[in-house]
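for the record, two folds in this file. i put them one after another cuz i was lazy. first one right below, seq on top, structure tokens after. the second one comes after a little note so u can tell where it starts
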Amino acid sequence: MKIKNLLFDFGEVLVTLSREKAVAAFRALGAEIADEIVPASWSFDGMFRDLENGKITEREFFDNLNFSLGLQATDEELRAAWNAIIQDIPLYKLDLLLALRKNYSVYMVSNTNKIHMDYTKEHLFKDGGHTIDDFFDKLYLSYEIGASKPEKAFFDYVIKDAGLKPEETLYLDDSPANIEAGWEMGFRVCPVSPLDDLDKLVEACLHTNQK
């Protein structure tokens, strides 16, 4: 079956993340965060997942952060610390996305939140005068969908909205749970490590799955 569509996860597949830098930024504001939860995904009363799923507003999130971390930080300070997790996207990955769009429909599928996405659109995907929309046919973002990977509802929404056939779609993600969920939905899957050369990995996965 010929691959016609590509689904790319955002963090650690395209964009480099640093939870350590985000934690350090919150500590600089006076937060006490235990070493044992770094660099694992850290959460307080599920508010991070609620933000990703669009269940709480930015105002509620910042208020919860101040309460949970014992801070009295301003919105600007909290926003900067929260966005410190986002680092950069290597230029070769931008070139890869543009090249792939010549032959495939290319989508971003991400568990993310409006704060991070606003920052991303302002600071990343800007090389050559581009905007983020030049690299993807559409962005599928958990906070807009109201569900997050690996939930079936997330994938069902993408399939229906984009009109995809899973067997014609290659899904790339660094989360084993998300990859397993994608495989169960019928997608061709390509597990990614943050250290992978994405050029070579995409070529290998396409070659394997085009047979």
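(here's the note) second protein begins now
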Amino acid sequence: MVRELKEVQGIIFKRQKYKEADLLAKIMTKNDGIITLIVKGALRPKSRLSAAMINFSAGTYVIYTNGHGLSNLRTYKEVKQFDGLYQDLTKNAYASFIFDLIDHAFVEYQPLGRYYDLAMFALKKINDGVDSEMITQIVQMKLLSAYGVEPQLAHCVICGKEKGIFDYSIKMGGVICNDHFGVITSRMHLKPKETAVLRTIGLLPIERLGTIKISEETKKATRKAIDRIYGATIDLNLKTKKFLDELKLF
């Protein structure tokens, strides 16, 4: 494929030194997927590109690309930083984990579609001070489909019942109603409220999510449940998750 200049709108979310004064930076875009950019001279003191390469900068970038492999950043315009993430270690850690999850769910240049909107939703909410833990749990539940293990949350996986008391079964791939609690040994034994939270954040469109008010006890339980779901269904060992867990302990 012939190389061409192309404008992409996206979010810088990962960067590392490359050679003496260059950077490798990952940008997440909606229609062109995740792209790794070579940014020539970005580490030089007078580089005009360095300001646009801060993690969680969002804007329009002009790249030289052929649609696979490494692309080159030529220039940028209308770039803004999410200062709340840049200045707060905890917010930054949550956002980094979210983008790492999305990064591992897609190959480079694979269009992200609604998952780009999900990433931008999470970035804005965390930057604005909305509960970072719950935003992360929302992303994790909605991202399961991108990994090919979307759970059945709308109704009982056995009988189809949509309302009532539910629990979650990793083995069954979704929720089961209390009519089957006595025979499904693989259920997680979550409290009804905890299962209700998982169903709500997994099913409700992000544009309809209002103020999130959940007790710390419930939040801790749903976090453990989601960690179990990911551990049993997706083979991931992310440094960003390990750092986030260590930060929580601290």
